[in-house]
Design brief:
Layout: H1 13-20, H2 25-36, E1 40-43, H3 50-60, E2 65-69, H4 76-89, E3 92-96, H5 102-109, H6 118-139, E4 144-146, H7 155-158, E5 163-166, E6 169-172, H8 180-189, H9 243-247
Parallel strand pairs: 1-2, 1-4, 2-3, 4-6
Antiparallel strand pairs: 5-6
Length: 252
């Protein structure tokens, strides 16, 4: 088995993407498992359709470390959903949280999510999501990260390829070209649950204070997050000089 190191020159991305161009999702996961070995991890937010990626990946690599960044502000139903999936799929779950407690953060900065200010939301995401994820990747010795992003979710994601380089880590997206119909059919075919908020009209769910059901006035499902001020939390944006500009864009 060939194991890739974090050396950014270790993998020819153009060649790898060409190789994966016609591969199905399971084949992409298998390729990533063979290529990155013990350096491969995956993330899950235990959102609406989280069972798809968790099932898909663990069918190929049952013991893969699953990183869950718990912000401390998730709905009770998310914690229950995560518990059910952990038991059902026997997940190798690694839970990470910010060293700054919710109470301390609110005392220092106020309720950042209530401020009509993208900079405040970015600070919230940096504290509660980005720092814990970066720490998880370091502590688990990750070189590559499987994520369930789909191209039709945001403008940023439409420009992604099956494998990309983000900072020091390769990012692999097995279901990048899947439609909502593909996701639904996979759930049904494998008798998998979706998050209970789906029945309440949610198409995406994160923290309780920054998610709401979709309405007829929404142009895009991601408008239901962060009060429409932005569409990405920073976990899946490139680490570059332009990251702050990207974070501030509501058209991502």
């Amino acid at each position: 088995m060939t194991v890739i190191t974090p050396d950014k020159t270790a993998l020819d991305l153009d060649r790898a993407n060409q190789h994966l161009d016609n591969a199905n999702a399971s084949d992409i996961v298998a390729w990533a498992a063979q290529t990155f070995g013990d350096g491969l991890v995956m993330s899950s937010s235990f959102g609406i359709q989280a069972a798809v990626m968790l099932h898909l990946v663990t069918q190929v690599k049952p013991d893969i470390p699953v990183i869950w960044v718990d912000t401390g502000y998730l709905p009770p139903e998310t914690y229950q959903f995560a518990e059910d999936l952990q038991q059902r799929l026997n997940l190798n779950l690694h839970i990470y949280q910010s060293p700054v407690s919710p109470a301390r953060m609110e005392a220092l900065y106020g309720k950042l999510w209530e401020q009509e200010d993208v900079a405040a939301l970015n600070r919230y995401d940096a504290i509660r999501k980005v720092e814990p994820m970066q720490r998880a990747l370091r502590e688990l010795g990750a070189t590559a990260w499987l994520a369930g992003l789909r191209a039709n979710q945001t403008q940023h994601r439409r420009n992604l390829r099956p494998i990309e380089l983000q900072g020091d880590y390769y990012k692999v997206f097995p279901i990048l070209d899947w439609s909502s119909k593909d996701v639904y059919e996979y759930l049904m075919a494998n008798d998998l649950p979706y998050h209970p908020y789906f029945d309440l009209g949610y198409t995406t769910v994160g923290d309780w204070h920054s998610s709401r059901p979709v309405t007829s006035d929404d142009d895009h499902e991601r408008d239901t997050r962060f009060r429409g001020l932005k569409q990405e939390c920073g976990l899946h944006l490139p680490e570059s000089d332009g990251e702050s500009e990207s974070l501030d864009s509501s058209s991502l």
